[in-house]
Structure of Riboflavin transporter:
Amino acid sequence: MCSDVSSSDCETNSRIDENTYLKHKRMKVYSLETNSVVKRKWFLDLLTCMFGIGSWILVNSLYTQFPLLVQNAPEGWNLPSYLSIAVQTGNLGPLLYSAWRKKFGNQYDRPLIISILILGIISMFLLAMFYDVTGIIFGKSHSIVLCIFTFTIALVGCTSSVLFIPSLSHYSDIYLVTYMVGEGISGFVPSLIAIIQGIGTTTCYTVERNGQNITEKAQTNANFSSGIFFTIIGIIMCISTVSYLFLEYLPNCKKEKIQTKPESVEAHGTKSIHNSNILLLVIQGVIVFFSNGLMPSIQSYSCLPYGYIAYHLATNLSNMANPIACFVAFYTNRTSKSVIYVLCSICIVSTIYMLMTAFTSPSPPLNNSIIGVILIVFIWVLFVGCVSYVKLSIAAVLRDEGSRGLFHYGCITQIGSTFGALIGFYLINVVQILKSYEPC
């Protein structure tokens, strides 16, 4: 009681008591997390990894099919820029969730996640059946069905950044890394399947018609169609959904959940922690501007002048670099800001070279040599690998803020990605500054 002290002393003592309580409360949380790391469970690693695979496997699988889709789509080389816009339109999901979260908090996250995962399953199986259906818009033929389902599967990926990742705050931070490994594998698995699928070859030949020599091209098919490819991805998405259900409802998983910070604790600590990591959020925004938005839009212009095989390898091997980078982060000091800054420098150099090859299309440097093919594939793989490590590291640092910090991470990711895709679409389809390459 404060009856024997002044009002100001009473307030001071109350603040001290509150701060002491909050300090001990946070120490208890961190202690629980430390114990969870020591006593990690293999089945949680497996389920969390499979849950992470479901975050972006739908969008990544679509990107791996670009080398095949651009050959027959009415948009041709411009198809990636259209689909990148459709992907970024999926940011409607995070926007709606942000408004939902502001009103209801995170108490309904579980049914929302389940609904999003089911939407992804349905969309992928429908895409497998109707991906090549086209229609006329403003007098031109367009891949209407492909664009529509690109939007719905993008809702899954984009929303996962602000919905899936914060749900992991109930588990030790080591499982965040496992989730990110799964997110990386979401690019590796489609790429591996796409390499088995093959791309087919294009052969140029000359025929004589009406006394004139005309150059035409013959194209061999891949080992199996994009429809079969999308069906396989849909099955994997089902497995990912079941994994999340196990994480939420399996008794052995539920008892591994740790005590999370109360809202009052997060509100008390968020401002100081967040302010110290403003630079990391800026880096994250710039990184995803290029890696998630701009570069996928212009990759066809950067790689296709070196041949369809170069485009195929750059697309799929770079996706494989993602989980490799995550595995490296798993065994290193992933929260080192010095490492983040060094890798960002490598990303800058790689980005400059890839932009140069895109803007000098259809005659980029070394486009008629094996060295040029090897270099462009290597640069794309290096870029994606470094970006993957940086994004995971930033997420690991911001994870100290709890679900709120990871929510900010997801928001800045989607904002940067959207602006990158819009710039790419403007350059390709509005000002038409990039020029395509015709092999024949």
In short: The two ends are 89 Å apart (CA to CA). The CA atoms of residues 7 and 13 lie 10 Å apart. The chain has 16 helices and four strands. The longest strand covers residues 202-209.
